[in-house]
Amino acid sequence: GNFKLEKAVIVRKVTRYEYEKYILKPDLTEDQLKIYINKKGSNYDFLYLRHQEYIKSLLDLENAFEKRGIKYRLVQRYNFRPQLIDWADAIFTCGGDGTFLLAASKIQVPNKPVIGINSDPIRSEGFLCLPRKYSSNIMLTLDKIFKGEFR
């Protein structure tokens, strides 16, 4: 059709590492945080690695938008506001099904696409997000959108 993608909002999730560090325990040093997380029975190194992988997937998405000349605004899921929805041609979520559902639930108009990028397509297969092939290759997704082959 005649869909134009010039402006997009990226709704990002909060990683478990970020949640622990900035929300639960903002006063701890990194070493204290590591001890705290490991004592709780979680694995700090694993959470930190997953966080780094998530940040990389976010940067991949931003870089793809920049290469395509798409203006974008990156917001944390808690800061996703109606003004941003009005501003954007499309909403992209970077996370999983939870991030997708949160974003989609705030959209009140039928003609505003919500496109879910699974930020961890190797470990998880979301039902609402794009399949692995498209989540792990954003340029392929954008090519399809720009050719009008994306539904």
From TrEMBL:
Pfam families: NAD_kinase. GO terms for biological process: NADP+ biosynthetic process. It comes from the Eukaryota. It is an enzyme of class 2 (transferase). GO terms for molecular function: NAD+ kinase activity. Its EC number is 2.7.1.23. Belongs to the NAD kinase family. This is NAD(+) kinase. It comes from Helobdella robusta (Californian leech).
